[in-house]
Amino acid sequence: MAEKQLRKSDLVKNWLLGYSSETCYNYERLQALGNANAFIPIIKRLYEPDQYAEEISKYMNFFNTEPSYMGTVIHGITAAMEEKRANDGDITIDEILSVRSALMGPLAGIGDSLFWGTLRPIAAGICASLALSGNGIAPLI
User: Fold this and answer.
1) Using only C-alpha atoms, what is the Rg of the chain?
2) Residue 2 Ramachandran class (φ > 0 left, ψ -120 to 50 alpha, else beta)
3) Is residue 71 a contact partner of residue 18, using CB atoms and an 8 Å limit?
4) How far is 76 from 70, CA to CA, in rounded Å?
């Protein structure tokens, strides 16, 4: 059997679709539906059509992290684990779910504090300074 390998385009689609995780929130699983949507290109590349439903259903478990900066790291690690699982089966579904669950909180904490506590206040300070000096670009930034 030929080794199944993810392409760069699959990973880019996964990354871009990962931003949809906040568009379909629900209070039972939070970002799970968007996360499952992001993994459709990965599942289609690695598994046969009769396995799609079973493989994508594991991504319908609770998922909640910061989706823009650090949360995308979880997608990359999970995609690599899926590729390994599809090729030699050394990784189980439970291990994939465990890694996702273990990384959600810490990476959300880092991502949220990086964006909301560091980058955004610095950008606001720079824009306020530009606005006070009469620069017209400040409102656009």
Assistant:
1) 19
2) beta
3) yes
4) 11
